[in-house]
Amino acid sequence: TRKPADLKLLEQVYYPPVASIVLGFHREDVAHPLDGFGMLIPQKENFNILGCLFSSSLFPNRAPDGSVTLTCYIGGARNPDLALLPHDQLVATCVRDLKVILGINGEPVFSHIQVFQKAIPQYEIGYGRFKDRMTTIENNAPGLFFAGHARDGISLGDSIVSGHRVAEKISKYVR
After folding, report:
1. What is the pTM of this model?
2. Which of 23, 109, 155, 167 is the most buried (most CB within 10 A)?
3. How far is it, in rounded angstroms, from Cα 70 to Cα 87?
């Protein structure tokens, strides 16, 4: 009989929490034209938000006429505790930063918050040991496959490629 795969090491992957805060504003309350993708904010700028997507500029039907939708991110490895603030404090923190950065002069008319307790694995020095363990486990446990951002990169594109790669492996395995 096979002994169970030892997954203990994988518990050590550091996934700091991130809060996604979606805010809706009246268009006239936002001075910035929002004519781009959004922004990433370097730590040295001393803001609390990690970045902001101009969601209503990127995707159709994300805000009613005369309104805009912004999606901000707080927490991560930079400030993990901020992601766990009460929802009203998350909104207030975003609005404070957005007033300075985008010239917002009003309160949001809509908000939706999603907190990801384990958001993005941190590829810190030595992370290769986790990938090596996944490979060892896959080699020793036929039919078990790892995919996703902890395995093959943190971007959405990396995760999609990872899913396709594993789908092909599974297809070959079940044949």
Report:
1. 0.84
2. 23
3. 16
CA nearest 26: which of 72, 61, 70, 60? 70
Order the strands of the 110-116 sheet from edge to edge: 38-40, 49-53, 67-75, 18-26, 110-116
Tell me: the pLDDT tens digits for 112-126? 999 999 999 999 999
Report angle CA 95, 99, 100 to the nearest 5 degrees: 125
Backbone angles phi, psi at 49, to 5 degrees: -75, 145
Query: Which pair of structure tokens corresponds to residue 145?
Result: 């496959």
Q: Which helix (H) or strand (E) holds 133?
A: helix 128-140
- 39 φ/ψ angles, rounded to the nearest 5 degrees: -155, 150
Cα–Cα distance measured from residue 80 to residue 17, given in angstroms and rounded to the nearest whole number = 6
Contact criterion met (CB below 8 Å) for 111 and 71 = no
Residue/partner pairs of 123-131 with CB below 8 Å, 24 or more apart: 123/154, 124/14, 127/13, 129/9, 130/9, 130/10, 130/12, 130/13
Report the C-alpha gap between 60 and 90 in whole angstroms.
26
What tokens were used for 93? Answer: 């923190």
Among 66, 71, 73, smallest CA distance to 29 is for 66
